[in-house]
């Protein structure tokens, strides 16, 4: 259950006065998600029922949030399926609730994906390319705070928990990545965490991409690699048995390239991008497992999954 900040009816009624959303009908904490507190919020305005998601940000500062909320609004306005944040009557998309930053966003239909279909992989390939193209006109900028420097700092924290084989593999991967000039590849706004649980589908129709709170300006190919690593594999309860589904990879890549073709350097760098994306989540999951944040109610996501994915891309 991830409701870290409990909100009363009275507090929510007061909060909603700064929005043109009508009167509060009901609200309910959302159990999925681990970073933030989320509530479903239902209101009624002019006889119509409206549905929203209220997010109370547990880790981000007020300063860094406008970048993410502006991207969500920008993408929704460019017909990329994302949840549009709701404008306050006073100023912008961000407000304070219980001393923390908070935002109200449009509630999308559908649910997260557990076993993506071939069609869903194709849809995501196409939509990510459209997201990347639209992002070329977005004026905000944010550095990737989960880039190679962050991975190196994280490795220093977790390396002692690794066995000799893991240490050697990770050392080789950092050597490989440090030798690549990622800046010479096409850059732009990336989602940076587009896993299956961050896209809501109704059947094979994408209702929206959510959780843009790692978005940043970085390497477009890396974003595609993050997505392939999570969407295009056949999972097993034993991470060592994970395998990729080549049909899903082909469907996703073909759909992406039909909207934004990959240049020669991107094609050459594909394997390295898959390895960089695997390394990033191997590092973050290792840190969460070995050095969990105090007081955090976290379902630990298994780093062995990304260790295996890294091994597959190395072979
Ligand atoms: N705009 C939305 N419309 C409908 N449902 C949403 C929306 N945003 C979030 N949700 C629901 O809330 C759940 C939690 O949201 P989210 O994944 O953003 O959680 P988080 O704690 O902020 O992030 P993380 O998953 O990284 O821990 C989602 O799985 C989804 O069911
Ligand atoms: N998508 C990440 C967690 C949120 O960043 C993972 O599965 O490790």
UniProtKB/TrEMBL annotation:
Organism: Thiomicrorhabdus heinhorstiae
Xref: NCBIfam families: PRK05231.1, thrB_alt
Protein name in the entry: Homoserine kinase
UniProt keyword annotations, A-Z: Amino-acid biosynthesis, ATP-binding, Kinase, Nucleotide-binding, Threonine biosynthesis, Transferase
Keyword Amino-acid biosynthesis assigned: yes
Annotated family: Belongs to the pseudomonas-type ThrB family.
Pathway the protein contributes to: Amino-acid biosynthesis; L-threonine biosynthesis; L-threonine from L-aspartate: step 4/5
UniProt cross-references to CDD domains, sorted A to Z: HomoserineK_II
EC category name: transferase
Domain Aminoglycoside phosphotransferase: 27-261
InterPro entries: Aminoglycoside_PTrfase, Homoserine_kinase_II, Kinase-like_dom_sf, Pseudomonas-type_ThrB
Domain of life (superkingdom): Bacteria
Recorded catalytic activity of this chain's protein: L-homoserine + ATP = O-phospho-L-homoserine + ADP + H(+)
Molecular-function annotations in GO: homoserine kinase activity
Amino-acid biosynthesis found in the keyword field: yes
UniProt-listed Enzyme Commission number(s): 2.7.1.39
């Amino acid at each position: 259950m991830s409701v870290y900040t409990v909100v009363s009816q009275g507090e929510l009624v007061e909060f909603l006065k700064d929005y043109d959303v009508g009167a509060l009908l009901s609200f309910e904490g959302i159990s999925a998600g681990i970073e933030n507190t989320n509530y479903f919020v239902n209101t009624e305005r002019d006889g119509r029922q409206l549905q929203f998601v209220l997010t109370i940000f547990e880790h981000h500062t007020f300063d860094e949030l406008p970048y993410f909320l502006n991207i969500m609004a920008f993408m929704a306005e460019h017909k990329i399926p994302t949840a549009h944040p709701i404008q306050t009557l006073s100023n912008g998309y961000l407000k304070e609730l219980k001393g923390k930053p908070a935002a109200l966003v449009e509630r999308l239909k559908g649910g997260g994906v557990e076993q993506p279909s071939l069609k869903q992989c194709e849809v995501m390939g196409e939509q990510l390319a459209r997201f990347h193209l639209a992002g070329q006109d977005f004026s905000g900028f944010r550095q990737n705070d989960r880039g190679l420097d962050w991975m190196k700092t994280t490795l220093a924290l977790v390396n002692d928990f690794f066995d000799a084989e893991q240490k050697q593999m990770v050392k080789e991967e950092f050597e490989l990545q440090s030798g690549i000039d990622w800046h010479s590849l096409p850059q732009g706004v990336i989602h940076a965490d587009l896993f299956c649980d961050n896209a809501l589908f109704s059947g094979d129709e994408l209702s929206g991409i959510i959780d843009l709170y790692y978005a940043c300006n970085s390497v477009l190919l890396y974003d595609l690699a993050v997505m392939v690593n999570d969407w295009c594999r056949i999972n097993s309860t034993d991470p060592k048995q994970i395998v990729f589904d080549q049909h899903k990879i082909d469907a996703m890549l073909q759909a992406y390239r039909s909207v934004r073709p990959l240049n020669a350097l991107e094609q050459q760098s594909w394997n390295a991008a898959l390895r960089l994306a695997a390394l990033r989540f191997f590092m973050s999951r290792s840190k969460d497992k070995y050095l969990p944040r105090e007081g955090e109610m976290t379902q630990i996501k298994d780093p062995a999954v990304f260790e295996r994915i890294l091994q597959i891309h190395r072979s």
